[in-house]
Amino acid sequence: MSPLVSLRCRLASWLLDRRFDLRYAMANRVCPDTADIVLASGRRIPPIPLPAFSHIFYHQASVETECAENSLRTLLWNIPETDEVILYDKGGTLPASCFDLLSRQHWRSWAIHRELDPQMASYTYGMNHSVPMARAPIVMVWRSDYVYPKGLYERYTELIPNHDIVLPYSVFIGGPHVRANFVRDHWDKLDNYDPAFWRANAAEEYSIYESQDPVHFAVRSSVWRKLGGLNHLLWGYGWQFGEFAARLRRKLPARRVRYFDHAPPVHQNHASSLMVRTEGYTERKAQEDHEGRRRFARFLGGEHLFRCYEYKWNQKLPPIPPELRR
What we know:
The chain has 326 residues and is an alpha/beta fold. Helices cover 42% and strands 17% of the residues. It has a seven-stranded mixed beta sheet with strand order 3-2-1-4-9-6-10, with helices on both faces.
């Protein structure tokens, strides 16, 4: 507090307590302006308390509600009530009951956007739109077509203090029969996670690291901004992920990027999944893939560059030894 402002306020306060006719006129002359009183305090405005971690529960319209409900249940057994959860509802198909499941969270919001054109329906658009919404310095991404084992959150929070982005090494891609109802019928195998059961019912164990397809991760929001998120020029059928992973490897020191072993998340098949698509849907996705390849070739600078990129990308990265994924 400024000594002069404090002295003037003491004098004005003393005058206002007196009992003579000129006390108000004199107090008006002595008393500082309200702005001067506020600024003289010298106190900074404290930030409001924010959550330590934010979670993007990412849902797109092609994923059935039953898959999303299964997924959200496993998200809630992973995270504390003090964390922020954003239901990112791309296409606006989540029922209100999903938001009700978050009623005990200290921070929760439901973001819906309409898919007015193909770009807006892309995962690239959704990620670049949703991740910056998070209030916390650390953001975790969960997808509504996966169900998650317990303990994954603890692995994220254990590793992220010393890294910029942390990712599970692999996931299980469920076989064609692993739909929402199959997951519910075998919930005990998820609650008390049975890796042998899910491996037996998986079409493959898909390495996020070797494929350079960052499906799930925890990232510092400042690093996401620094990297610029996914490349929106490459929206469409998957090529944006490899490009993002390439920037990740080049712009961040290797020690700041961590892939880790954990009980793998399990992908639930749904209407747009590769294994269960109808013929018409498959044709449409094939066209999207073709257009995505053309966009990526233009981005790289020509077909010869894309051919070399694809040649090297198909070789995959060498696996990280298990002892380095702990």
